[in-house]
Automatic annotation (TrEMBL):
Domain E3 UFM1-protein ligase 1-like N-terminal intervals: 7-176
InterPro entries according to UniProt: Ufl1, Ufl1_N
GO biological process, one term: regulation of proteasomal ubiquitin-dependent protein catabolic process
Pfam families: E3_UFM1_ligase
GO MF annotation terms: UFM1 ligase activity
GO cellular component, one term: endoplasmic reticulum membrane
Listed name of the protein: E3 UFM1-protein ligase 1-like N-terminal domain-containing protein
Origin: domain of life: Eukaryota
């Protein structure tokens, strides 16, 4: 019973207990064996890192992929994630697919995960370019942003109010009349 002990005696007892060696310790090898057995029984599904030193769950990997998309200003190639996340590209591709099923603001285009906020910035830049020139050729815009033309058109359709333009005949045209050029 420790109720009658002074504060100093309790501190000394705590120091003694903390300095004792633990008889039953789970070492790294035992932990690895335990995870393998849990995996074989289907009780846990983890992904091994490339260096084999860690495991991550699929949910954790999906959060890391989403974080990298945010960190990369809304656009990241899946192949670039393997060395960054220390996970095989096949696992990244699989979990990116799962992530995209849950997140309607993310799109997989040509091996890249692209966020809606990146597409908003593309629309903003298109708006600025349109104000300067009055018209843009969509194929040129697609090349400028390294996006497939069909995907770019679909992305811009929902953002034309912000762009202040009209999509027609393979181009984007300003809604405002252009000033006449003086000759």
């Amino acid at each position: 019973d420790d109720e009658g002990l002074s504060l100093d005696e309790l501190r000394a007892k705590l120091d003694t207990v903390q300095s004792l060696e633990v008889e039953h310790k789970l070492n790294e090898r035992n932990a690895v064996d335990l995870v393998r057995k849990l995996q074989l029984k289907g009780l846990v599904d983890v992904v091994y890192t490339l260096d084999g030193r860690e495991y991550v769950t699929h949910a954790h990997l999906q959060r890391e992929i989403a974080d990298e998309v945010d960190f990369s200003n809304g656009r990241v190639h899946l192949l670039d994630l393997s060395p960054v996340l220390n996970v095989d590209a096949a696992h990244i591709e699989k979990d990116a697919g799962r992530l995209l099923q849950d997140r309607s603001d993310l799109h997989l285009v040509g091996g890249e995960v692209i966020a809606d906020f990146y597409l908003d910035s593309v629309a903003e830049e298109v708006r600025e370019l349109l104000q300067e020139s009055g018209k843009l050729v969509l194929a040129d815009v697609a090349r400028r942003f390294h996006l497939p033309l069909g995907f770019l058109v679909e992305a811009l359709k929902g953002r034309m109010g912000h762009v202040n333009g009209t999509l027609a005949g393979g181009g984007v045209f300003t809604k405002a009349p252009l000033p006449r050029r003086q000759r």
